[in-house]
Amino acid sequence: MLPFEPPRRLRCGRFVLSLERPLVMGVLNVTPDSFSDGGRHASLEAATRHARRLIDEGADLLDIGGESTRPGAAPVPPDEEIRRVVPVLDALRDCGRPLSVDTRRPEVMRAALEHGADLINDIDALQASGALDAVRASDCAVCLMHMQGEPGTMQQAPHYDDVVGEVEDFLAGRVSAAVEGGIDRDRIVIDPGIGFGKTLRHNLQLLGALDELAALGLPVLVGVSRKSMIGALTGRDVDHRLAGSLSAMLAAVLRGARIVRVHDVAETRDALRVWQAIDDAA
Ligand code: 9MG
Asked: Are 104 and 131 in contact (CB under 8 A)?
């Protein structure tokens, strides 16, 4: 039982999503290292095939990303990001699931929204000039994520005096800016940004105190899938982090996460189904 009343619905472009149960967001990376080998057309085919598999496995939303945000990743010019993301949006427009686009560039947001995106997942929390306007002009949902620094350098020396307080204050400030900028609260999701400018200890503290973030009264999205914190705790390489990822995902859901961003949709669904059955019986 959580000590607060969580939000029940999220307005999300063409959809209104019920938040009564946790939602599974499947990751669809369209960076060259994900579906590269046979040129743009083959990449598009592979990406849409993977998207359909995620949907068959039970994804409630898809998160399409054309720029790697992994620690150390180099930025991608917005026009290249648009070239990667827009054909995938066009191909998946009628797939029956909300389409999220993971971007921090206002040009990409505008192009994505013109091509049917329902959610903008911004690791930069709409801080770029023009980002708020791009989102306000549509009826999409937006995920405001916390990050310290930039993907290229964020893991070099993350520092906080009070990581939970600072992340909470940042997110509360970004929510206020979004609402004042004309984005209704029922379109906003918040995210502590696990692994984005944080040490293992910071990540654990944030996950342990997720209920404090959830008490802000907005849906909380969490991404822990295959991340380096799972590697650090288990000693496993990125291809062998499923059990650790599921465990962290459930810990987040127990503390109020309503959307989980994952690579392994079928296994996440199974884990949630078992947890939900126990929770319903309690
Ligand atoms: C793009 N991306 C990678 N990890 C993420 C996370 O934890 N949250 C969100 N919102 N996006 C993420």
From this structure: yes
Q: Which tokens hold the place of 191? A: 């995210």
Interatomic CA distance for residues 47 and 45, integer angstroms: 5
The helix or strand, by DSSP H or E, that contains position 172, with its residue range, turns out to be helix 163-180
Token digits of residue 206: 């944030």
In whole angstroms, give the CA distance from residue 123 to residue 120.
10
Quick one: average pLDDT of 167-172? Answer: 98
**pLDDT value at 137 more than 80:** yes
43-70: pLDDT as tens digits: 899 999 999 999 999 999 999 999 998 8
Please tell me what DSSP assigns to residue 185.
G
CB contact at 8 A, 259 and 15? no
Token pair 């884990």 in the structure block, residue: 271
Q: What positions carry a catalytic annotation? A: 227, 261
What is the per-residue pLDDT across 100-118, written as a single tens digit (0 to 9) for each? 999 999 999 999 999 999 9
CA dist 18 and 13 (Å) reads: 14
Is residue 66 within 8 A of residue 84, CB to CB? The reply is: yes
The finding on whether 123 has its CB within 6 A of some atom of ligand 1 is: yes
The reply to whether ligand 1 has any atom less than 6 angstroms from the CB of 26 is no
**DSSP string over 102-152:** E---HHHHHHHHHTT--EEEETTTT-STTHHHHHHTS--EEEEE--SS-TT
- Spatial separation of the C-alpha atoms in residues 77 and 144, rounded to whole Å: 22
The bridge status of strand 23-29 relative to strand 257-262 is parallel
From the CA of 136, how far away is ligand 1's center (Å)? 21
Cα-Cα end-to-end distance for the chain: 9
